[in-house]
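Re: export button greyed out
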Amino acid sequence: MIDIVSKRYWFFAVSLLVILPGLYSLATAGLKLSIAFTSGSLLELRVNSVTNQTLAVADVRRIAGERISSDAVIQIGGADTIIIRSKPMKQDDKVALVVDLEAMYGKTTELSFETVGAEVSQEVTGAAVNAVILASLAILAWITVAFYRVPKPYRYGVAAIIAMLHDVAVVIGMASILGQLFNFEIDALFLTALLTVIGFSVHDTIVVFDRIRENVVRHRGMAYESIVNHSIVQTLDRSINTTLTVLLTLFALWLFGGITIRNFVLTLLLGIFSGSYSSIFNAAQILVAWESGEVGRFFRRLRGQATA
Amino acid sequence: MNQRSPRALIAVLLLAAAALWVDLDFSHGEWYKSLLFWRPAESRDLKVVLGLDLQGGQEVLLQPDPGPGQIIKSDDIVAAIVVITKRINALGVAEALIQKVGLDRIAVQLPGVKDPDQAIKTFGQTGLLEFIDTGEVSVPEGTLVTTTGFSGSADSGTPAASATSAPTTPATRAPTLSPTGAATTPLSGTTGVTATASVTPSAPLSPTLPLTQTPALGPYRTIMTGIHIESAQVGFDQTTNEPIVQFTLKSDGARIFADYTSKNVGRYLTIVLDKRVISSPRIQSAILQGSGQISGNFTRDSAESLSVQIRYGALPVPLKILSSRTVGPTLGQDSINKSLLAGLIGIGAVVIFMLLYYRLPGLLANLALILYGGLVFAIFKLLPVTLTLAGIAGFVLSIGMAVDANVLIFERMKEELRAGRSLRSAMRAGFERAWLSIRDSNISSLITCAILFWFGSNFGASIVAGFALTLAIGILVSLFTAIFVTRTLMNFVIDSELVKNLWWYGVGSSNEPGA
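Workaround output, generated via the alternate export path:
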């Protein structure tokens, strides 16, 4: 049988290797927040008539500077799409801006226009944080209830939450790095993806834990470490297959789905992959480390170093 | 449920037929409408409701923006919703949704609206029309003015009811206009709608609209407001052929108008909407017929918009736009095509995978998965669930997760078969032992869905709520199809001699030990 549990520190190290750069980026550069959290306007136009004017950021910026504000962010997408981000635009100003752009480039089609005021964006941000905290607590409570027959049931809850925080850290860290590299923005859909990842991560972890729960009863007297290893190996096929089917559908969405949900799907892909990894290589191993007193020893050593 | 159970199989087949019947687009007849008792009588149909991001449209979140000293009552929000609803109906937007969100916010959803800018103008403006006395001067169009108003804003009376209620108090608020009693011609008799008011559009002092914030002029005395107007419609000026707004007055309005115009010939009667001058005509002669017209620099649309605002009265309280989102129909259609394609490819990949890896059980799981798709889509139509892009993503994701329960069961079954159990008992053990972990893991997903839904519906993030709802429906239905349907199908085929070889179950290639 494959021995996964005894190599647990290697797997923890791999996780840290992925998480630390992300967290570093998060601490130094933060996240690129969309207007849903910072307030502002996002106008997306497609130029559909043929004029001799080619789209140039400088021209659009000059026009936008006259009508809305000079610190608007202008992007040209492809040959015919203009994206303008700014502080919240007034309706009249937007209409005037579009009129001016049409004078320059000919007829345009408004693909999308979004404005979020500061009040709403603050509420959304607050609610998002609350939603994540609330989801964690509810899941912790649920696992403790579901595992009440096993000795020390709260450990299962805590281990599942740690594995879940692992996935959250992976996703947010990657989002921060992608924000630096590719202007990846955090919007309401990102939050949705994050919460889904949380759900999936716990879902996956519980399947492994369920097997441990069963084997603990069935193989009394066997070492906890080998029971856990046994359980992981027994559920390995299922873990891989389920992840594979979910990733297959997500890949299809990523390749063929609309551009508007591409970031959403990418977030899900990263998170679900991480969720499977943590449920196989981290969650159950934390239980073993805890059971064998390694966690306590680790903290004692930390404290020892602090006092020394 | 150990042996073949024809009853369960018949139930599954009936369910599949019902789902197919709901899913397919054909003329369903009328009788089914009585079955959809949970939906309002006027919207009982089996259409897919597409969200704004899929069909294009506009979503606006409004909040009262009271002037100084103005207190908002909860009645005002209700009245504002009534006024907005009437205005939107007049715009001809189908399936608009106007609802109160939270304590005092109003969410307006306009699917498929063609000109979002004009729509915002029509329903978002207060729509307080005033006729003010500007004495000897013509005020340029677009100028911001202050007025004495009827107590500052339109909060006298309920404007929403203006079409039906009898004219009330405000007549007394124009003290200088002592009613002469000289009855004007009854308005019902005016047939030729045009050419009554002395509207010669004043030549604007500056050629373009002064958009700059000049300090407001005034205050000017308000002679009359939109409350006194019975009806309004768009017409065309006979000489210039420009769009104008024609109106007829209620009897008390007609009295005020007749009285005022006959005493003030030669002076200017300026027409103001939301404190901004529309036109400032000179009174050329007394207007006794109780009807008139407003001209300004109207386009067809802006004239329509003004006439709608006049017809349905002013909002009881000014509203400000908290957030708005417009999606063009091009983008929407593009998204729906792409995600449908992605969904099909996703399902196809999962079906092939299951078939290759799990063989016979995989085939049965695929049948259950197809039924799953049909059932979920039928529920989307029946409830109905508004399908958004995120909602479709939730659905596609749930396909991947829908087979999870089956994967758990089949893996367990394989283990039991390898351990030497008979087919039947391995199957029973597979379903029984997998159930606990299916239950526990799916409940944790449902908890997340509930929190997502709460988050989405309370904070105007409707995409989030849509995603949570479709995912939750997907999880619940998949529990049913992956457990009940797969087991029923399996019960039915497992005893067949054709599939005794364990190869069919993805375990080596030997025969069942007990067989």
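Confidence is low (pLDDT under 50) at residues 151-213 of chain B. The button fix ships in the next patch.
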